[in-house]
Fold this protein.
Amino acid sequence: MQHDARDGIEAARRNVQALFGLPTLGGRAQPALGARPVLQGGTRGETHLRGQPEERAPKYAFLSLEAVLDYRPPQDQIADWHTVVPGKRETFWSIAAEHQVPVEKIIAFNFPGSAENGRVVPAIVNWYLRRHRGFGCSMTQDHLNRKFRGGEKIAIPLLGAVTLGEPQIGRPEPLDEEAIVAGDLGRFDAVVMGIRAYNTRPRLMALHEPLMAYVAGGGRLVVQYNTNNRFDPLRGAIGPRPFQISRLRVTDETAPMVAVNPEHPALVGPNRLGPADFDGWVQERGLYFADQWDPAYEVLFAAHDPGEEPLQGGTLISHHGEGVFVYTGLSFFRQLPAGVPGAYRLLANLLALE
């Protein structure tokens, strides 16, 4: 990943994004596994990960994945650095005891968003232990947890510098139809519609005009997939120009994603995307692609299942006034909870389109 993405994403996303029903980043991914688990700690059984513990991304990670994966606490709040000694079989509890700092504060200090409602969430800690560039902890032989490799650097906070809870890295704000009616969208850089929003909230069809006014005024509207069939057809416009949603999809999660225009702005900034960004996708590439669209729409990718014709309707982009409209059938709703880096990077680019 390119490290300059952090500044680009933060600059483009100074305001929080509004979501319609985007699934909470969570669910079950790879089990968080560990000979001496780094979270095991005597009587602290509530955070001793057993069996097949869940792994969950911090809820705001998709807004600034680069910042989260590279995160280090502010230097003026660090009392000391602890370097894990290879072969010493250290845990967070042994480190906390050595430095006389509560273990929860050490964890929350190093892993932003790992505490919710004042309690450390083991599933989020496991996500960090596997993915953070300063950790990358391997699994234990029993496949039940993760262990330090040695060499990891853990920041020890100044006492009183850390409160358990989520930092403001840029968290989404839910919206409903009343916010659209009130014309309250102008304060947002981007609005992301959750999957099937137009199927489950029919009133949105009647709000097409204020939504397009938001785009024309400089907003970015990203609409995730909706279904459309003869039994339950979509009745009305979604974008600034006509397009038709079909049942076409790419079910092979390894299908090559061929850039139609490799220099399209959505593929070069703030993250320059390439084939590696489509490694590790889960279950599918996408579904309910468009099969007809106005020529003014720009397409990003051609992809297909084995033996089938290439499909280009997975993502449509149209400038409208001062803003940008995007329809995408790509399965962000599966990739974001699974922590797929390339999906985060692509979504960040779509949210930053000018």
About this structure: The two ends are 22 Å apart (CA to CA). Residues 45-157 form one domain. Residues 1-36, 40-53 have pLDDT under 50 and may be disordered.
